[in-house]
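Report of the visiting student (M.T.), summer placement. My assignment was to run the structure pipeline on a short list of targets and document each run. The first record concerns Shikimate dehydrogenase (NADP(+)).
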Amino acid sequence: MKRYAVFGHPVLHSLSPKIHRTFGQQSGIELDYVAIECAPGDFAAALSSFAKSGGQGANVTLPHKQRAAELCNLLSNRARRAGAVNTLIRHDNGWLGDNTDGVGLVRDLTGRQGLDLRGRRTLLLGAGGAARGVAPALLEAGVGDVFVVNRDSTKADALIDQLGEPGRMHARYFDDLGTLGEFDLILNATSATRHGTLPTLPMSLVGPRTAAVDLSYGEAAIPFLAWARAAHAHTTVDGLGMLVEQAAESFFLWHGVRPDTDPVYTELQARHAALITA
Ligand code: NDP
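After the run finished, the structure tokens were exported:
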């Protein structure tokens, strides 16, 4: 049986094992997919031991995505552009790294949520692994100017330098947010609410057309989406659809089969809604 895993810290809450096992059942592909918890200093050793034990592929989640890119001897264009890897594919001499976060987000927003991203003035909160993954795909999907705000401003600058589109991307500080006007698309790609906080966000960022998207899902998405609803955002979206779509793209890279994502999304959404209201 082929072996797959998701590496992260923390990761034991991850829905990826369930999603990939369901895709496997749908497609008639037998696979073993487990969550492997490891601290940043242990990731390289854990990945090496997974490869020695026959691991064929892996997903990588926070905080290992940039380290994963360094450990690959081959990178796809989108992983190179992002400087972050969320999907590892085993080959004869090591790992090929790819990044499916961006395509996952764009498929969910333009497909399931029916949003036209073209020309949208965009605010990207965060410059960590997830922000790096989604920024190139958003630019390719035709969004307008992208303002990147991160506590550590050197990471926002590095993300913009890496993407090589200085005319379309602009680094700003959280303290500047009150002066930036309205955005058509606001993405929360910070992990702040995992630590029980939400950065202070002025309601002046939200206009009648704003779509507010939190890349996290479940309880972690509640504070940002509640802020956006209070500011009368047109649309609010959590990261569950992105999670399912990025997993489907990884599944395609490993197995050459495109799974049907809608039933998986519907089941997870119902389960999360029940947990949140319980
Ligand atoms: P990283 O650890 O790589 O980056 C975390 C980011 O959050 C950094 O930009 C960091 O800023 C910022 N941050 C953390 N705490 C705060 C705070 N209190 N205030 C402001 N900014 C803060 O994580 P990822 O980028 O991998 O993940 C970010 C989020 O995206 C997570 O919630 C994750 O679950 C979600 N995600 C969802 C996916 C999906 O498929 N739906 C896929 C990938 C991620 P700084 O650099 O200044 O520390």
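Residues 62-63, 65, 101, 104, 126-131, 150-152, 155, 189-192, 194-195, 197, 199, 215-217, 220, 239, 242-243, 246 surround NDP (CB under 6 Å). The mean pLDDT is 95. I thank the supervising group for their guidance throughout the placement.
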